Amino acid sequence: MSGFGVAGPPPAPSIEGWNHLRTGKVRDLYSNDSGEILLVASDRISAFDWVLPTTIPNKGAILTQLSLFWFELLADIVPNHVISDEVPESVADRAVIVQPLEMFAIECVARGYLTGSGLVEYNTNQEVCGNPLPAGLLDGSALPASIFTPATKAEVGDHDINIDFQSAQKIVGAEAAEDLRRLTLALYDTAADFARGRGIILADTKFEFGINMAGEITLGDEALTPDSSRFWESDGWAPGKSQPSFDKQFVRDWLTSSGWDKKSPPPELPAEIVAKTAARYQDAYERITGSKF
């Protein structure tokens, strides 16, 4: 069953001059006659591989503007796919015009802290995606150094699958895998240092790369948002417990306690959970960028 539920994905709005290509969990993609892509971030939110029926106000604009901030900050490390943020008025602030990329078929994940699926694997074999780690680490422990933990890309409604570096080499080629690991860790380490100065821990993050028309590895999709990263409060951080976060944790916690079976279409979110989640997204944006949203 699709992660959008029985009704399927929502209809994408019509935008003059742009042809709808596809709808993902959060984004709608369009193309024009010049071959450019219009990447529109909606206010949809997903959890447990389902797109929820309730939207989060301003989420799409926050994801887009935060990505633009990071793209500019990290441009010296790797080129990105952005052509322009001058977009049709109907999608102002929540869309960018980008170059088409031939995307690599792996998710490029960097981790500086142990949690989530990494913690599950560590508790089994003291490794994460083939990276051996010291004994005695807890949920939320800082790692000795950041690690590259790639994953396969899943269709909507399916889980990404963590893989080791050798498996990534088989999928994208040995040379490309080396480049992607190097770039992923350089981006993560630079962003984590920056975030630390704003009182935020960047626990882990996911990047997507492709090849542009000039044959260069290029950063695409989004970058370092609460949807693609775990941001934690530096002040409240302590290993061995759940960390205070800037993402959709309010949503996950409420869904877990609601009695929803995670197999049938999810319930509507209460107004209080929507408001708290929207506030956390906005807080992350303002803390990181130093600007009011």
UniProtKB/TrEMBL annotation:
In which domain of life is the source organism classified?
Answer: Bacteria
InterPro entries, from UniProt?
Answer: SAICAR_synt/ADE2_N, SAICAR_synth, SAICAR_synthetase_CS
Pfam families associated with the record: SAICAR_synt (PF01259)
Residues crossing the lipid bilayer are none
Question: Which UniProt keywords are present, listed alphabetically?
Answer: ATP-binding, Ligase, Nucleotide-binding, Purine biosynthesis
Q: Where is the SAICAR synthetase/ADE2 N-terminal domain?
A: 21-265
Q: Does the keyword Ribonucleoprotein apply?
A: no
The reaction(s) annotated as catalysed by this protein in its Swiss-Prot or TrEMBL entry are: 5-amino-1-(5-phospho-D-ribosyl)imidazole-4-carboxylate + L-aspartate + ATP = (2S)-2-[5-amino-1-(5-phospho-beta-D-ribosyl)imidazole-4-carboxamido]succinate + ADP + phosphate + 2 H(+)
Q: In which pathway does it act?
A: Purine metabolism; IMP biosynthesis via de novo pathway; 5-amino-1-(5-phospho-D-ribosyl)imidazole-4-carboxamide from 5-amino-1-(5-phospho-D-ribosyl)imidazole-4-carboxylate: step 1/2
Which top class of enzyme applies to this chain? Answer: ligase
Q: What is its EC number?
A: 6.3.2.6
Assigned protein family: Belongs to the SAICAR synthetase family.
Q: What protein is this chain from?
A: Phosphoribosylaminoimidazole-succinocarboxamide synthase
